Amino acid sequence: MHAIEPSPAPVSILIVVVLYKCEFAKSQALTSILQILKTDPELADHFSLILYDNSPERLNQNPVGTVPLLYVHDPSNSGLAVAYNFALARAELQGSEWILLFDQDTKATRKFLLELVVSATNLRDVANVAAIVPKLLVNGIVHSPATHFLDVLRRQFSTPAPNTYNSLVGIQEDRLNFYNSASTLRVSTLRSIGAFPTEFWLDYLDHTVFHTLFVNGYRVYVLNASLEHDQSDADLTDVSALRHRNVLRAQTLFVKRAGNLVDRTLYRVWLLRYSRKLRSLCKDRRVWRETALQALRLRIGTPSATSEKGPTIVRIC
User: Does residue 217 lie in a domain region?
Assistant: First the structure.
Protein backbone atom coordinates (compact mmCIF):
# COMPACT_ATOMS: atom_id res chain seq x y z
CA MET A 1 0.00 0.00 0.00
CA HIS A 2 1.31 3.42 -0.96
CA ALA A 3 0.64 6.28 1.42
CA ILE A 4 -1.68 8.90 -0.01
CA GLU A 5 -0.03 12.30 0.14
CA PRO A 6 -2.31 15.04 1.49
CA SER A 7 -3.38 17.71 -0.95
CA PRO A 8 -1.53 20.99 -0.48
CA ALA A 9 -3.42 23.63 1.47
CA PRO A 10 -5.07 26.39 -0.60
CA VAL A 11 -2.81 29.35 -1.23
CA SER A 12 -3.29 31.98 1.48
CA ILE A 13 -3.09 35.72 0.83
CA LEU A 14 -3.36 38.52 3.39
CA ILE A 15 -4.69 41.77 1.92
CA VAL A 16 -3.73 45.07 3.56
CA VAL A 17 -5.66 48.17 2.54
CA VAL A 18 -4.11 51.42 3.80
CA LEU A 19 -6.57 54.26 4.37
CA TYR A 20 -6.07 57.96 5.05
CA LYS A 21 -8.99 60.29 5.77
CA CYS A 22 -11.25 58.01 3.76
CA GLU A 23 -14.55 56.51 4.88
CA PHE A 24 -14.89 52.78 4.30
CA ALA A 25 -17.68 53.24 1.78
CA LYS A 26 -15.59 55.68 -0.28
CA SER A 27 -12.55 53.45 -0.65
CA GLN A 28 -12.64 51.86 -4.09
CA ALA A 29 -10.21 49.19 -2.95
CA LEU A 30 -12.13 48.14 0.14
CA THR A 31 -15.62 48.23 -1.36
CA SER A 32 -14.59 46.33 -4.50
CA ILE A 33 -12.69 43.64 -2.57
CA LEU A 34 -15.51 43.04 -0.08
CA GLN A 35 -18.14 42.89 -2.84
CA ILE A 36 -16.14 40.39 -4.91
CA LEU A 37 -15.39 38.09 -1.98
CA LYS A 38 -18.98 38.30 -0.71
CA THR A 39 -20.32 36.92 -3.99
CA ASP A 40 -17.62 34.23 -4.38
CA PRO A 41 -17.13 32.24 -1.12
CA GLU A 42 -14.73 29.81 -2.79
CA LEU A 43 -12.47 32.67 -3.82
CA ALA A 44 -12.85 34.28 -0.39
CA ASP A 45 -11.35 31.18 1.26
CA HIS A 46 -7.92 32.28 0.03
CA PHE A 47 -7.98 35.73 1.65
CA SER A 48 -7.91 37.56 4.95
CA LEU A 49 -7.94 41.34 5.31
CA ILE A 50 -6.33 44.13 7.33
CA LEU A 51 -7.58 47.72 7.21
CA TYR A 52 -4.73 49.96 8.33
CA ASP A 53 -6.15 53.41 8.95
CA ASN A 54 -3.65 56.29 9.18
CA SER A 55 -6.38 58.91 9.69
CA PRO A 56 -6.18 61.26 12.69
CA GLU A 57 -9.61 60.13 13.93
CA ARG A 58 -10.82 56.56 14.09
CA LEU A 59 -13.75 55.70 11.84
CA ASN A 60 -16.79 54.62 13.83
CA GLN A 61 -18.59 52.50 11.26
CA ASN A 62 -17.59 48.89 10.62
CA PRO A 63 -17.42 47.37 7.13
CA VAL A 64 -19.39 44.19 6.62
CA GLY A 65 -17.35 41.42 5.06
CA THR A 66 -17.21 37.65 4.69
CA VAL A 67 -13.45 37.27 5.28
CA PRO A 68 -11.42 37.54 8.52
CA LEU A 69 -10.96 41.29 8.98
CA LEU A 70 -8.71 43.27 11.31
CA TYR A 71 -9.01 47.05 11.73
CA VAL A 72 -5.89 48.95 12.83
CA HIS A 73 -6.06 52.65 13.66
CA ASP A 74 -2.72 54.50 13.67
CA PRO A 75 -3.41 58.22 14.36
CA SER A 76 0.32 58.99 14.17
CA ASN A 77 0.14 58.41 10.38
CA SER A 78 3.29 56.28 10.42
CA GLY A 79 3.05 55.79 6.66
CA LEU A 80 3.04 52.85 4.31
CA ALA A 81 6.18 51.07 5.47
CA VAL A 82 4.94 50.69 9.05
CA ALA A 83 1.52 49.51 7.84
CA TYR A 84 3.08 46.98 5.49
CA ASN A 85 5.49 45.70 8.14
CA PHE A 86 2.54 45.22 10.50
CA ALA A 87 0.80 43.19 7.79
CA LEU A 88 3.99 41.22 7.13
CA ALA A 89 4.29 40.23 10.79
CA ARG A 90 0.59 39.33 10.87
CA ALA A 91 0.97 37.21 7.73
CA GLU A 92 3.82 35.29 9.35
CA LEU A 93 1.78 34.81 12.52
CA GLN A 94 -1.22 33.35 10.71
CA GLY A 95 0.77 31.43 8.08
CA SER A 96 -0.16 33.45 4.99
CA GLU A 97 2.23 32.89 2.08
CA TRP A 98 1.66 36.22 0.34
CA ILE A 99 0.59 39.75 1.21
CA LEU A 100 -1.41 41.86 -1.23
CA LEU A 101 -0.95 45.63 -0.88
CA PHE A 102 -3.74 48.04 -1.77
CA ASP A 103 -3.99 51.82 -1.83
CA GLN A 104 -7.47 53.04 -0.96
CA ASP A 105 -8.18 54.22 -4.54
CA THR A 106 -7.20 51.19 -6.61
CA LYS A 107 -10.28 49.23 -7.68
CA ALA A 108 -10.04 45.44 -7.57
CA THR A 109 -11.76 43.14 -10.08
CA ARG A 110 -12.85 39.52 -9.83
CA LYS A 111 -10.71 38.70 -12.88
CA PHE A 112 -7.64 40.05 -11.11
CA LEU A 113 -8.24 38.14 -7.87
CA LEU A 114 -8.97 34.89 -9.71
CA GLU A 115 -5.84 35.19 -11.86
CA LEU A 116 -3.83 36.09 -8.78
CA VAL A 117 -4.91 32.97 -6.88
CA VAL A 118 -4.11 30.72 -9.85
CA SER A 119 -0.72 32.37 -10.38
CA ALA A 120 0.20 32.30 -6.69
CA THR A 121 -0.65 28.59 -6.62
CA ASN A 122 1.37 27.82 -9.74
CA LEU A 123 4.34 29.88 -8.55
CA ARG A 124 4.34 28.43 -5.06
CA ASP A 125 7.55 26.48 -5.64
CA VAL A 126 9.20 28.96 -8.02
CA ALA A 127 11.34 30.47 -5.30
CA ASN A 128 12.93 33.24 -7.36
CA VAL A 129 9.55 34.85 -8.09
CA ALA A 130 9.04 37.25 -5.21
CA ALA A 131 6.07 39.27 -6.46
CA ILE A 132 2.97 39.04 -8.63
CA VAL A 133 1.58 42.28 -10.06
CA PRO A 134 -1.16 43.45 -12.43
CA LYS A 135 -0.86 46.37 -14.80
CA LEU A 136 -2.06 49.64 -13.25
CA LEU A 137 -3.74 52.21 -15.49
CA VAL A 138 -3.89 55.92 -14.75
CA ASN A 139 -6.31 57.66 -17.11
CA GLY A 140 -6.06 54.68 -19.44
CA ILE A 141 -2.25 54.66 -19.62
CA VAL A 142 -0.08 51.93 -18.03
CA HIS A 143 1.92 53.47 -15.18
CA SER A 144 2.99 50.18 -13.62
CA PRO A 145 5.10 48.35 -14.78
CA ALA A 146 7.37 51.27 -15.60
CA THR A 147 10.99 51.98 -16.44
CA HIS A 148 13.35 51.73 -13.47
CA PHE A 149 14.16 55.27 -12.26
CA LEU A 150 17.92 54.85 -12.71
CA ASP A 151 17.26 53.90 -16.34
CA VAL A 152 15.06 57.00 -16.69
CA LEU A 153 18.06 59.07 -15.63
CA ARG A 154 20.41 57.30 -18.00
CA ARG A 155 18.07 57.65 -20.98
CA GLN A 156 16.90 61.22 -20.38
CA PHE A 157 18.61 62.53 -23.54
CA SER A 158 17.34 59.70 -25.74
CA THR A 159 14.14 59.74 -27.77
CA PRO A 160 11.39 58.37 -25.49
CA ALA A 161 10.47 54.80 -26.36
CA PRO A 162 6.79 53.96 -26.88
CA ASN A 163 4.98 52.64 -23.82
CA THR A 164 4.64 48.92 -24.49
CA TYR A 165 4.27 47.78 -20.91
CA ASN A 166 0.64 46.81 -21.52
CA SER A 167 1.92 43.75 -23.41
CA LEU A 168 4.13 42.41 -20.61
CA VAL A 169 3.06 39.05 -19.18
CA GLY A 170 4.92 36.45 -17.15
CA ILE A 171 8.26 36.46 -15.34
CA GLN A 172 10.28 39.61 -16.07
CA GLU A 173 14.06 39.34 -16.31
CA ASP A 174 14.72 43.08 -16.75
CA ARG A 175 14.73 45.52 -13.87
CA LEU A 176 11.52 47.52 -13.76
CA ASN A 177 9.53 49.53 -11.29
CA PHE A 178 6.09 48.58 -10.02
CA TYR A 179 3.66 50.44 -7.80
CA ASN A 180 2.92 49.22 -4.30
CA SER A 181 -0.81 49.08 -4.88
CA ALA A 182 -2.17 45.70 -6.06
CA SER A 183 1.28 44.12 -5.72
CA THR A 184 1.39 40.69 -4.09
CA LEU A 185 4.67 39.82 -2.40
CA ARG A 186 5.99 36.56 -1.02
CA VAL A 187 6.15 36.76 2.77
CA SER A 188 9.32 34.69 3.25
CA THR A 189 11.21 36.66 0.59
CA LEU A 190 10.24 40.02 2.08
CA ARG A 191 11.56 38.94 5.44
CA SER A 192 14.81 37.73 3.85
CA ILE A 193 15.54 41.20 2.42
CA GLY A 194 14.79 42.98 5.70
CA ALA A 195 11.08 43.77 5.19
CA PHE A 196 9.90 47.27 4.20
CA PRO A 197 12.51 49.98 4.95
CA THR A 198 10.95 52.55 7.27
CA GLU A 199 13.22 55.37 6.06
CA PHE A 200 11.06 55.28 2.91
CA TRP A 201 7.94 55.80 5.00
CA LEU A 202 5.75 56.80 2.03
CA ASP A 203 7.40 57.82 -1.25
CA TYR A 204 9.77 55.62 -3.23
CA LEU A 205 9.04 52.65 -1.01
CA ASP A 206 7.97 50.67 -4.08
CA HIS A 207 11.10 51.70 -6.03
CA THR A 208 13.28 50.58 -3.13
CA VAL A 209 11.59 47.25 -2.46
CA PHE A 210 11.48 46.14 -6.09
CA HIS A 211 15.05 47.31 -6.69
CA THR A 212 16.23 45.35 -3.63
CA LEU A 213 14.40 42.26 -4.83
CA PHE A 214 15.99 42.55 -8.26
CA VAL A 215 19.59 43.00 -7.07
CA ASN A 216 19.12 39.97 -4.81
CA GLY A 217 18.18 37.81 -7.77
CA TYR A 218 14.41 37.79 -7.40
CA ARG A 219 11.95 38.38 -10.23
CA VAL A 220 8.40 39.68 -10.70
CA TYR A 221 5.51 37.93 -12.45
CA VAL A 222 3.20 40.26 -14.41
CA LEU A 223 -0.44 39.23 -14.79
CA ASN A 224 -2.73 39.74 -17.76
CA ALA A 225 -5.14 41.65 -15.52
CA SER A 226 -5.26 45.45 -15.53
CA LEU A 227 -6.67 47.67 -12.78
CA GLU A 228 -7.66 51.32 -12.67
CA HIS A 229 -5.59 53.37 -10.26
CA ASP A 230 -6.27 56.90 -9.03
CA GLN A 231 -2.87 58.56 -8.69
CA SER A 232 -3.12 61.53 -6.35
CA ASP A 233 -0.08 63.37 -7.74
CA ALA A 234 -0.87 62.83 -11.42
CA ASP A 235 -1.94 66.47 -11.79
CA LEU A 236 1.24 68.51 -11.39
CA THR A 237 -0.67 71.80 -11.35
CA ASP A 238 -2.02 71.12 -7.85
CA VAL A 239 0.94 69.37 -6.19
CA SER A 240 1.74 70.93 -2.80
CA ALA A 241 5.20 72.08 -1.76
CA LEU A 242 5.13 69.85 1.35
CA ARG A 243 4.13 66.78 -0.63
CA HIS A 244 6.74 67.45 -3.29
CA ARG A 245 9.41 68.01 -0.62
CA ASN A 246 8.77 64.51 0.71
CA VAL A 247 9.04 63.07 -2.78
CA LEU A 248 12.35 64.87 -3.40
CA ARG A 249 13.78 63.61 -0.12
CA ALA A 250 12.84 59.98 -0.82
CA GLN A 251 13.86 60.16 -4.47
CA THR A 252 17.27 61.54 -3.56
CA LEU A 253 17.80 58.89 -0.90
CA PHE A 254 16.90 56.20 -3.42
CA VAL A 255 19.36 57.49 -6.04
CA LYS A 256 22.15 57.81 -3.46
CA ARG A 257 21.63 54.24 -2.28
CA ALA A 258 20.84 52.46 -5.54
CA GLY A 259 22.90 54.48 -8.01
CA ASN A 260 26.57 55.24 -8.60
CA LEU A 261 28.45 58.53 -9.06
CA VAL A 262 27.34 58.82 -12.68
CA ASP A 263 23.71 58.24 -11.67
CA ARG A 264 23.93 60.96 -9.03
CA THR A 265 25.35 63.38 -11.59
CA LEU A 266 22.63 62.51 -14.08
CA TYR A 267 20.07 62.96 -11.31
CA ARG A 268 21.25 66.55 -10.77
CA VAL A 269 20.77 67.21 -14.49
CA TRP A 270 17.37 65.54 -14.45
CA LEU A 271 16.23 67.67 -11.50
CA LEU A 272 17.22 70.88 -13.30
CA ARG A 273 15.37 69.82 -16.44
CA TYR A 274 12.36 68.71 -14.39
CA SER A 275 12.27 72.03 -12.53
CA ARG A 276 11.75 73.82 -15.85
CA LYS A 277 8.70 71.66 -16.51
CA LEU A 278 7.36 72.29 -13.01
CA ARG A 279 7.88 76.03 -13.41
CA SER A 280 5.44 76.13 -16.30
CA LEU A 281 2.89 73.81 -14.68
CA CYS A 282 2.79 74.30 -10.91
CA LYS A 283 0.76 76.97 -9.19
CA ASP A 284 3.03 76.89 -6.15
CA ARG A 285 6.36 78.43 -7.18
CA ARG A 286 8.13 76.76 -4.25
CA VAL A 287 7.78 73.39 -6.01
CA TRP A 288 10.04 74.17 -8.97
CA ARG A 289 12.41 76.30 -6.90
CA GLU A 290 13.03 73.52 -4.39
CA THR A 291 13.51 71.04 -7.24
CA ALA A 292 16.21 73.23 -8.80
CA LEU A 293 17.84 73.77 -5.41
CA GLN A 294 17.84 70.04 -4.74
CA ALA A 295 19.96 69.56 -7.87
CA LEU A 296 22.70 71.58 -6.19
CA ARG A 297 22.67 70.10 -2.71
CA LEU A 298 21.00 66.64 -2.95
CA ARG A 299 19.70 67.05 0.59
CA ILE A 300 17.99 64.07 2.17
CA GLY A 301 16.75 65.73 5.34
CA THR A 302 14.54 64.04 7.89
CA PRO A 303 11.26 62.24 7.16
CA SER A 304 8.07 63.56 8.72
CA ALA A 305 7.99 62.89 12.44
CA THR A 306 5.41 60.46 13.80
CA SER A 307 3.90 59.99 17.21
CA GLU A 308 5.19 57.30 19.54
CA LYS A 309 1.62 56.28 20.33
CA GLY A 310 0.97 52.77 19.10
CA PRO A 311 -1.91 51.72 16.87
CA THR A 312 -5.27 50.48 18.11
CA ILE A 313 -6.19 47.03 16.82
CA VAL A 314 -9.82 45.90 16.54
CA ARG A 315 -11.00 42.53 15.19
CA ILE A 316 -14.22 43.09 13.25
CA CYS A 317 -14.99 39.59 12.05
Answer: yes
Tens digit of each residue's pLDDT (9 = 90 or more) over 101-126 = 999 999 999 999 999 999 999 999 99
Give the model's pLDDT for residue 209: 98
**Confidence at residue 305, expressed as pLDDT on a 0 to 100 scale:** 43
Question: What pLDDT, on a 0 to 100 scale, did the predictor assign at position 64?
Answer: 63
> 257: domain range?
236-297
Q: Is residue 118 part of a domain?
A: yes
Residue 104 lies in a domain: yes
- Helices 80-94 and 205-215, axial angle in degrees (round to 10): 50
Please check whether residue 44 is in contact with residue 52, taking contact to mean a CB–CB distance below 8 angstroms: no
- The model's pTM is 0.92
The parts of the chain modelled with pLDDT lower than 70 are 1-7, 63-65, 232-237, 302-310, 314-317
Residue 126 resides in a domain: yes
Residues 287 and 229 in one domain: no
CATH number for 130: 3.90.550.60
Q: 15: which strand partners? A: 49, 100
